[in-house]
Amino acid sequence: MEHSPAAAEKVFGERLELAERYVRHLATSGVERGLIGPRETDRLWDRHVLNCAVVAELVPDGANVVDVGSGAGLPGIPLALARPDLRIVLVEPLARRVDWLQEILDDLGLSLTVERGRAEENAIKRRWEGADVVTARAVAPLARLAGWSLPLLRDGGRLLAVKGASAAEEIERDAAEVHRLGGGAPSIERCGDGIVDPLSTVISVERETRPTGRSRKKRST
């Protein structure tokens, strides 16, 4: 496993030691329990942890964040380490991953919530709807992800989906469906200038304000 790069101190500050401990967990028990591929251990910092942490540039102060399909805690745990002001829920359907996440949070002393379930389940929606931000990384194509995530957001809240080279293609293919689901026009944001190379690519979708029942009634009369 590589040593923490200089950029990590800029991102994590006094929480750098916790970030280093998290990376060690990823490289050891994360690999042993199938959350991280063994070939990823030499690029955990740039490709995974910092790549996720820089998404914090797009998250408002004090936001309520729901990280769907959290897996190994990406991007939720790096965001929490970089931004202690955020209130973050990690939503993950697989019990073995939920158990691992809780072990890691306990060891790091982080007060995130781990919720076993899928974002599209009614129980998850009831429990966590009204979020300011929903994050996701390598979970699903944009249209499907929007269908799961937009109901969790307050009006004006934002889906931030960490993507790769397919981002523009996904937007072109799925923008109409995202709009049908209640999202605004998807846009591509680049994060991490001076920290990660290449920059992190994030698709941002705002949940549009829904008309109230009363306003719909007025328009129909």
TrEMBL record:
Its EC number is 2.1.1.-. S-adenosyl-L-methionine binds at residues 69, 74, 119-120, 137. It is found in: Cytoplasm. InterPro entries: rRNA_ssu_MeTfrase_G, SAM-dependent_MTases_sf. CDD domains: AdoMet_MTases (cd02440). It is an enzyme of class 2 (transferase). Keywords: Cytoplasm, Methyltransferase, rRNA processing, S-adenosyl-L-methionine, Transferase. Transmembrane segments: none annotated. Gene3D superfamilies: Vaccinia Virus protein VP39 (3.40.50.150). Belongs to the methyltransferase superfamily. RNA methyltransferase RsmG family. Specifically methylates the N7 position of a guanine in 16S rRNA. This is Ribosomal RNA small subunit methyltransferase G. The lineage of its organism: Bacteria, Bacillati, Actinomycetota, Actinomycetes, Pseudonocardiales.
